[in-house]
Amino acid sequence: MKQNIKKVIEVGINQETDSWLAGKIKLVNIISLANFIFILWMILFDLFINKNHYLSIVLLGISFIMLIPYYLNYKKRYIASRLVFLSFAYFCICFLAVVFGKEFYFQYYLVPGVGMSLIFFRDEIGKKKWLFTFAGIPLWALLEFWFANYPAFIILDGKYASAISYFSSFLIFVTAILMFGTFTHESDNQLRNISKMNKKFKQLANIDPLTNLYNRRFVDEQLEHLFDLAKNQNGFLGFVIFDIDFFKKVNDTYGHDAGDKVLQIIAKLADENFRETDLVGRIGGEEFCIVFTNTNNENVLKIVERFRKEVEEQVVQYEEKNIKITSSFGISYFSNNLNSCEELFKNADSALYEAKRSGRNRICEYKKDL
């Protein structure tokens, strides 16, 4: 049932429809259908109570006119739908007011009409939207002049007229509530979508597209933050830089696509072997890093050694060829002697250089005499 109602309300909307436009389409659909249903109720009320059914005849025509914007949305003529909706709305309001008189409060429909025009055409049809926005003011003045000088064309029974006027007032109130409620709901959706997009863009800005690991910029930001935290709270911070041994040879021998696949395999292994609290990133070419917190030197060495063996045992298959790879690691640890995270980074890089100089495929911890 809920899905069927949603389909009816979202007529004219597809996956390509902009969320803001979709909100306006839904607003027209909801108000068109709601007015159609309420007018039918008013017709039933008129048929049961009143002896003469002039109001029913007029309202029946108006009810079907109010469905034309819904049909135009179905045909994906979105601006035409809203133009027709407002034009017919103003016309029908004035017509009903002139025919049945001031006592039915039809003229008060002009108030939500002003709000609708601003919502409908906020970013469309240029200066013409102000014609629709302020059309209600002269129309109201014209109706007041008419009421003062001319009687209603059709005069209904006093008790019946009172009941219809209350019903009309209720319909005006419901229309305004539907309009502003739908608009508020769609505005909230728009803000949520913007928030999601901003988060997505922020994530894309922080992620390396090839490996889906964090990029150098994000690693630098987080490392600086964690360094300050360790310094202020005397906490643990370990930093590891590693790269793929003889990676240039892989590219030269098998091609850059093979090299990309090797990088992706390394990233996948890193994702599987390190904790969620460990920050893993690609900081350049074939160079990666891991940031450790809430542990100790011994555990870091143990975890990195396990990962080194995983890489050593890994065979990358590319176009029916097996590529063997190894990695070298440099580790540095936070100490109160360090003045900045750049020093921590530089120490890990020096340890990596020592690992390579000592034969590669090994781990080297930073020592002051490196």
Structural commentary:
With 370 residues, the protein is an alpha+beta fold. Helices cover 65% and strands 11% of the residues. It has 13 helices and seven strands. It has helices spanning 2-9, 19-49, 54-65, 68-74, 78-100, 110-120, 129-149, 158-206, 216-233, 247-254, 256-273, 297-313, 341-357, and strands at residues 237-244, 279-284, 287-293, 315-318, 321-324, 327-333, 363-365. The chain has a five-stranded mixed beta sheet with strand order 2-3-1-6-7, sandwiched between helices. Strands 4-5 form a two-stranded antiparallel sheet. It is elongated and about 105 Å long. The mean pLDDT is 81.
List keywords for this structure.
7 strands, two-stranded antiparallel sheet, 370 residues, five-stranded mixed sheet, single chain, 13 helices, alpha+beta
Helix content estimate: 55-70%
Arithmetic mean pLDDT: 81
Low-confidence stretches: none
- H and E string: HHHHHHHHHEHHEEHEEEHE
How big is the Rg? 36 Å
Number of strands: 7
What is the percentage of strand-forming residues? 5-15%
- The class by helix and strand makeup works out as alpha+beta
Distance between the termini: 73 Å
Quick recap:
This protein has 370 residues and is of the alpha+beta class.
Helix-strand layout with pairing:
Layout: H1 2-9, H2 19-49, H3 54-65, H4 68-74, H5 78-100, H6 110-120, H7 129-149, H8 158-206, H9 216-233, E1 237-244, H10 247-254, H11 256-273, E2 279-284, E3 287-293, H12 297-313, E4 315-318, E5 321-324, E6 327-333, H13 341-357, E7 363-365
Parallel strand pairs: 6-7
Antiparallel strand pairs: 1-3, 1-6, 2-3, 4-5
